[in-house]
Design brief:
Blueprint: E1 6-7, H1 18-29, H2 41-60, E2 68-71, H3 74-92, E3 96-100, H4 105-118, E4 121-125, H5 135-141, E5 146-150, H6 164-171, E6 177-181, E7 199-203, E8 214-218, H7 248-283, E9 288-290, E10 301-306, H8 311-318, E11 322-323, H9 339-343, H10 348-352, E12 354-358, H11 369-379
Parallel strand pairs: 1-11, 3-4, 3-5, 5-6, 6-7
Antiparallel strand pairs: 2-8, 7-8, 9-10, 10-12
Helix pairs in contact: 1-7, 2-7, 3-4, 7-11
The structure holds pyridoxal-5'-phosphate.
Length: 384
């Protein structure tokens, strides 16, 4: 029997769209110039293309061309945003930061660094079982010395959408800046990111672009730039905020992936929802609970705990059918309860045994949800 394993782990990374791969290939092998070369056509073409990509990406979040800088991904964007704001906090005496306990490590770790090495006070808000941090809970904590709020757009483990747009509108009335890690939401939940968010982190490989490319949006407040300082030094590219030779092929790949997503987003969303319904209908055979508020979730991520089943054992059992994850990929090497599910107040065994299914609807043609549900139901205590 030749098993077809369905990839249900797009929250970890996606297959590069073949159209994107063609574009990347072109900018690697034909138009391979350095966007910083000023003395010939090769450089000029690369520079022009990057500017076009920049303008497009800016448009997708309602920003201006010059407000986008290209990076290697959301981890780097988060670090530039969070560590880059620290000098302003130190100079102005505003050393309080609010974030959530369900952020990705790429936000939590830089903030722990600011707390432990540079004397910042960081509040980690817990969302409760819904997995959604309320705008009110954030606003209650905002003080005159609050430099920054950092709240993710879509949680990578539960798919729950956070109220970043409403928060942006409120924080605009205060001196506190808002950073949003939009690694999971960019391209998929389009409208939110057009809100007046000061700093947005974007990752290419969550939308069908290659790994190793992303962007940081640094939106002005009127005439005022976000007071970011560089954390790396070099040739002065990207307004000195991200020095280093621009990865033109990857940037063009990100552009193409974002363009494809924009063009197909509503179809993608309804197809993703359809797949969710199929999966949930099949899982009726099993006993499970959904982790996080299903009504506030993106359609392509589903986090469930199956009653009485150990997630690691289950993954081994179903690995010839589907590729899924426990918690986030970055912590799945260690067998600890998910920090996200724990921060939601879920019991230890639920938080340890959460399973994340995530899919792109065009890539699950061979998926057999009934077969999967059958396997799981047979493993559950009391099954025939
Ligand atoms: C919410 C979130 N933030 C940041 C990252 C890191 O993004 P990148 O791989 O582009 O550095 C991820 C990737 O898993 C993520 O899900």
């Amino acid at each position: 029997m030749s098993a077809v394993v369905t990839y249900l782990d797009v929250a970890a990374t996606t297959r590069v769209d073949p159209r994107v791969a063609d574009v990347v290939h072109h900018w690697m092998t034909e138009d391979f110039g350095n966007a910083g070369s000023r003395t010939h056509e090769f450089g000029a073409r690369a520079k022009k293309a990057v500017q076009e990509a920049r303008t497009f990406l800016a448009g997708t979040v309602g920003a201006k061309t010059e407000e986008v800088i290209f990076t290697s991904g959301a981890t780097e964007s988060n670090n530039i945003a969070l560590l880059g704001m620290a000098p302003h906090g130190e100079k102005s005496g505003r050393k309080h930061i609010i974030t959530s306990a369900i952020e990705h490590k790429a936000v939590i770790e830089p903030l722990l660094h600011l707390r432990d090495a540079r004397g910042f006070e960081v509040d980690f808000l817990e969302p409760g079982p819904s997995g959604r941090v309320s705008k009110e809970a954030v606003m209650e904590r905002v003080r005159p010395d609050t430099l920054l709020v950092s709240l993710m757009h879509v949680n990578n483990e539960t798919g729950v959408i956070q109220p970043v747009a409403e928060l942006a509108e409120e924080l605009r009335q205060t001196p506190t800046f808002l950073h949003v890690d939009a690694a999971q939401g960019y391209g998929k939940v389009a409208q939110d990111l057009k809100a007046p968010i000061d700093l947005i982190s974007i990752s290419g490989h969550k939308i069908g672009a290659p790994k190793g490319v992303g962007a940081l949006v640094t939106r002005r407040r009127g005439w005022d730039k976000v007071p970011l300082e560089p954390i790396m030094f070099g040739g002065g590219q990207e307004r000195k905020l991200r020095p280093g030779t621009l990865a033109v092929p990857l940037i063009m790949g990100l552009y193409e992936a974002a363009r494809i997503f924009q063009e197909n987003r509503s179809q993608w969303e309804s197809d993703a929802r359809h797949m969710r319904e199929r999966l949930l209908a099949a899982l009726e055979k099993t006993r499970f609970q959904i982790n996080g508020d299903a009504d506030q979730s993106v359609p392509h991520i589903l986090n469930v705990t199956f009653v009485g089943l150990n997630a690691e054992a289950l993954i081994v059992r179903i690995k010839d059918q589907v590729a899924v994850a426990t918690g986030s990929a970055c912590t799945s090497a260690s067998y600890t309860p998910s920090h996200v599910l724990t921060a939601m107040g879920l019991p230890h065994d639920v938080a340890t045994n959460g399973l994340r299914f995530s899919w792109f609807p065009g890539q699950v043609a061979d998926f057999d949800p009934e077969g999967l549900a059958e396997t799981i139901a047979h493993m559950q205590p009391g099954a025939a």
